[in-house]
Amino acid sequence: MAENRRSITGDAAGMAPLDQPVLVTGGAGFIGSHFVRHLMNTADCAVLNLDLLTYAGNLDSLADLQNNPRHQLVQGDIGNLDLVDDLLRHHQPQAVINLAAESHVDRSIDTPDDFIQTNVVATGNLLKACLSYWETLPVEAQDRFRFLHVSTDEVYGSLGVTGMFTEQTRYAPNSPYAASKAASDHLVRAYHHTYGLPTMVSNSSNNYGPAQFPEKLIPLMILNAQEGLRLPVYGDGTHVRDWLYVTDHCEALWTILQSALPGETYNIGANSEKTNLEIVETICDAVDDLLPGLAHAPSRSLIDFVTDRPGHDRRYAIDATKLKSELGWHARTSFAEGIRRTVAWYLENSAWVAEAMTKGYQRQRLGLPTAASETGTRASSPTKAAPEYVVGEQIEGVVVRDIQRFIDDRGWLVELVRNDELAMENRPAMAYLSETMPGVTRGPHEHVHQTDCFAFVGPGEFQVYLWDSRPLSKTYGVKMMVQCGAARPACVVVPPGVVHAYKNTSDVSGSVFNAPDQLYGGPGKSGPVDEIRHEECAGSPYQLE
Length: 545
Ligand SMILES: NC(=O)c1ccc[n+]([C@@H]2O[C@H](COP(=O)([O-])OP(=O)(O)OC[C@H]3O[C@@H](n4cnc5c(N)ncnc54)[C@H](O)[C@@H]3O)[C@@H](O)[C@H]2O)c1
What we know:
The protein is of the alpha/beta class.
């Protein structure tokens, strides 16, 4: 991992030019990393890989290519005109394939602006840079140059029980993700029709396979089934998707890039329609089979039907006849074979999963718009019922430990934090002491990444309120209250996603010690700060009386 990071460059300067590479954008993502590997294994061209390394980009997905001289990764934004201009002029790519995108529908419901920025604005800049590069090329190189934009079948909207999407189907995107992809598809088409840039668009059905970020249906279900966590199936589970194994998609993309005519669009699919419930049940059976003796088996017992995604498209089905008949591509991997390989890969690659899980995603529910529209930020939890706090009830991951007072020749001392005993995964990044006036409440909030490690040892008496807002936690919805302070010195460890508040119930000014694993970035500090989700005081279901 550390080795791999060394091969990243942030600009063109200092890099030896590659020999007429293919510029792959988003090549550290799910499909992109497979596509880069496909070129390394089957083509003789070099690859210039431009990836911003957002949460979805993972260098571990390219670990096997780190010493390959035909592959160079540049960390950067496709929307950065200067950078892309430099790279194009320096390396003179023979083709560009655009896989860089924000790609998760649920996230697009929470933060549509990110999707408009990357999928529309940044893609527009990439096209602009490619056009000005292409215009400088000699005529023969212009004729050979291709720009392939990788898109989705979601731009077509939703189907009824019959019918399939063809290249003639009218665009009718229903989610902010699909709308942003549709917008970029139109831009790509317009650059061909207006300026003559040799562009093509491909619209593929849902992909699956190794190294897909765990927020997507298939990896999420595999990992939850492995760990005995609930398997949240949206709505009634009858939504239909048409599944394509990722390496088959990569073969199709390379075929199109090599053989298609400018201005063409191609649908890519494997004729493999499944309901979401069928997918989850297949995964459960594969996990049970590959991990015999799981305590929670059968994994199907973990299936939990949850609130549907807003605007959830009912059915997608791709007609890929044009690609088959014109360019001779067909999918080679059956669903039974592909899903088995995928499940096995996730079970065997826990280090890759661990790296992916450092990106601030903890398998929480995304894309429920009520929370997003109420708070104006990313949705935090689907349920906002007023909590009734129960003294002493346990929440998964919360640690409450009495702190022993040791007699000292000055009086007494307490050990505030002992990582070996608390079994915290993360070490404190700092420690601070705050003063809370009598009767004052530190308002209810939760952290996205940060684990707090509080010590209430006096002066002052505190009521600490905790509420588990992590939908996938075994104790989701449990509320607890701990009384601690001078009379009962205690340490309280609060993981991300657990709403917490405390109130000084004494008539003296009270001290609260905290050793969080992230740095404080509040007033007077400019350093990094974890995202905090504050509930508004007025009318908040978490508000304390
Ligand atoms: N996954 C699917 O099922 C599927 C199906 C059809 C089409 N697609 C399309 O294929 C493409 C790739 O999808 P994926 O599933 O691999 O996505 P992904 O989210 O796994 O990867 C996206 C990659 O793009 C990078 N990226 C994001 N913004 C960037 C920017 N501004 N500049 C440079 N890099 C940036 C990320 O770091 C990441 O490595 C997307 O355009 C997506 O819409 C995906």
